[in-house]
Structures are given as C-alpha cells and as structure tokens.
Amino acid sequence: MTSPPHRLLQALDRFNAVHPWDHNAHYHRWILRQLPRRFGSALDVGSGAGDLARLLSTRADAVHGVDSDPAITARARALTPGPTAASFTVADALTDLPAGPRDVITCVATIHHLPFADALDTFRRHLAPGGTLVVVGLYRPRTATDHLLGAAAVLPNAVIGWLKNRGRPAAAPPTSMTARTRPADMPFSDITAAAHTVLPGARLRRRLFWRYTLVWRRP
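-> structure tokens emitted (219 positions)
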C-alpha cells in the first residue's frame, strides 16, 4: 500500500502541474538587489523569453540577452517593445558571446546545460573590473540538507502556484519556461568547489525551490 507521505507528494505534484509558476522569475527581484542602482552594460546568458533582460534594462544603459534557441529568442524580441535598452541574439554561451567587458552578467537556470567551470571562466573574462556576476542555478540533491530543503519547498511551492494562478488552472506555461530543460547533474558541494577555484571569493547558497545562487564581484 502507498504510504500517506508518498500519496501526499503525488497529490502535490498533480496540483503543481495544474498551477505552474516560474521558479526562475521568482529570483529576478533578488538579482536586482545584488546589483548597483545604475550600471552601464549587462549580459543575460540564457535569456529565454527576455523577462530578466527587460527588468535589467530599467537599471542599465544597454542589456544584451543571448540564447541558443532561435524560437525563444524570436519570442523575446516580439515581447520587447521598442525603443528599449534590451536586445537579443542567438548565440552559444561559450563561444559566441558579444564582446565585453560587461558591468553585469546574469545567468539563470542555464549553466547546468554547460560545462560548469568553462562557463564560469568565460563569464569571468567578459566581466569588467568591479563588475558583478549573478548565477541562479539548479543542483542535484545528494545530502540530507539538500533533501530537507527540497521537502520544505513543496508546500510553499503549491501555495505560491495557487496564488499566482488565482486558484484557477493555468491556461499555458509561463513564457520564460518554454525552452528545453534537463535535470542538473552536479551536486551543490561540487558546484561550490569548482566555483571557488575559478572565482575566488564567490558567495554561493542553497535556496528554496530547488535552486542555488552564486554572486561574484570581479576585483
């Protein structure tokens, strides 16, 4: 017989499927709080439908969003009114980034698709002295702490999904969640060790909703 906790998790999974919300966008305002009130140029890697790039454009003189998916990049352009500080290009995050340096680089739910250390090194090289890198990423749960934090997020996830959908089933997935995704394969401990090797002084922290954050300011 299925145990009550397991049945509860299955019920919550079904509820969340009917009332989805964007876990990545949840951290957009937090990202802004890590940045100066005003800065010159920003690069958003894995920009998707452009939600974060448009938000960054309220602070920046110029924001360039890059994504490897032509369809989602076209959608970002269509959703971005002109004239605006935000522009979007189809590009590979490791080999085709626009020339820098940039005052701000952001990367949300994208770096687990890339060779981790190589991606951080690329971001570091494109960041201006004194610039800020902010990453919101996914990790593979491995430790008891990881699993406890994941369990603690289940109920708030359902509540937020209910509130954001105003109690009604969602008609379509959020626009910034339409790109292809795959599970993360690096545990948080390996992410931390690799990040500190490439970016000495980087601050990493596990977060709710199966995410971690990384903040690094280039000397």
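The first strand starts at residue 39 and ends at 45.
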